[in-house]
Amino acid sequence: MRSFGEDTTLQRIRFTLPERNTRRVRVLVAALLSIFLLGGMFGPTAASATPARSAPWGGYDELWVPSSMGNIKVQVQWAARGGNAALYLLDGLRAQNDRNAWSFETNALDQYRNDNITLVMPVGGESSFYTDWYAPSNFNAQPITYRWETFLTRELPDFLAGYGVSPTNNAIIGLSMGGSAALNLAGHHRDQFKFAGSLSGYINISGPGMREAIRVAMFDAGRYNVDSMWGPPWSSGWLRNDPFVNAESLRGLSMYISSSNGIPGPYDHPSAPIDYFHTATGMGLEALSWVHARAFEIRLKSLGIPATYSFPPAGIHSWPYWSAELWMARGQILDTMNAW
Q1: Residue 49 predicted with pLDDT over 90
Q2: Which residues are the active-site residues?
Q3: Are 155 and 296 in contact (CB under 8 A)?
Q4: What is the rounded distance in angstroms from the CA atom of residue 152 to the CA atom of residue 154?
């Protein structure tokens, strides 16, 4: 005879099944509860808290890093002996969405393969100047607002910290667009970067005609509207992102500034008409970057700020010369980062 209030689900089963089956039900219920509880404790949340490298130290990985712009691909070559230093390599104005050009236009991976420093090559950022934009570009119906400064100085270093890469022991170097960005990012985030390098960079943004030239270049490279980046020419965003104006913020930073003069050099052997066109374009772009580098040298010396300068006697605005300059800067980078 049952007392009042005992008609539970398990008791109802007991009155309809033999005692042996009742014990089986109890075991099944207990097992299901255990699976549920253990799954909550040790399931996907805990497992995803610690990322895992698929390559050994000194190996190569392609990571997808969450950001406010969506998941960003980052190519990584890990430090050879597990060191926590990193070298960020920034691309140029026509950065591709599938690969960072440092990984295939140069031998950067081979140059640093045996060194105790992780190469970090973010993918994408065409015409971005690796900065935080005010709004999406309206000329090309850009679906997102570029937030590259936020990505490179907060989201990416926080993500890489899970792999043993220090958020405060970094170097950064870039070419052309990436050269000015490297100096800007290092100047604004001195707690993160100990070294910055500009190879053929445009580092006097406020110089005569530069704002108009950048406007034209960005429209040509993807139909981007420069007003969405730093605002109209009179906006303070232009001054904030001019290394020449903010040179004082670079005091105490290890720097490598390089540009050639635009005269064709040992890597230039045009043969077809398109080759001559690209060579002529590279000559003009490099000559302009040389003017910027020389002006920047005078600016830093007037402030008593030291830097390493490299002005080869010949060379145009092209990858073989930047690959060579990366090798020339290697000793200074590894010394600064203690990453031999």
Answers
A1: no
A2: 176, 286, 317
A3: no
A4: 6
Kindly state the DSSP code that residue 194 receives in the 8-state scheme.
E
Q: Please, are residues 263 and 283 in contact by the beta-carbon 8 Å criterion? A: yes
| C-alpha–C-alpha distance, residues 91 and 106, integer Å | 12
Tokens of 294: 């020389």
Taking the C-alpha atoms of residue 173 and residue 179, their distance in angstroms, rounded to an integer, is: 6
Residue type, 245: V
Helices 9-16 and 19-42 sit at what angle, rounded to 10 degrees? 150
177 CB burial (10 A radius; 0-12, 13-18, 19+): buried
DSSP bridge pairs for 132: 147
In terms of Cβ atoms closer than 10 Å to its own Cβ (0-12, 13-18, 19+), residue 242 is: buried
Q: Which helix (H) or strand (E) holds 277?
A: helix 273-303
CA distance 82 to 163: 10
| pLDDT 10s digits, 198-238 | 999 999 999 999 999 999 999 999 999 999 999 999 999 99
Strand runs (DSSP E) across the chain, as ranges?
Answer: 60-65, 72-77, 86-90, 118-122, 170-175, 193-199, 254-258, 308-310
Distance CA 26, CA 265 (A): 83
Among candidates 233, 123, 138, which has minimal Cα distance to 178? 123
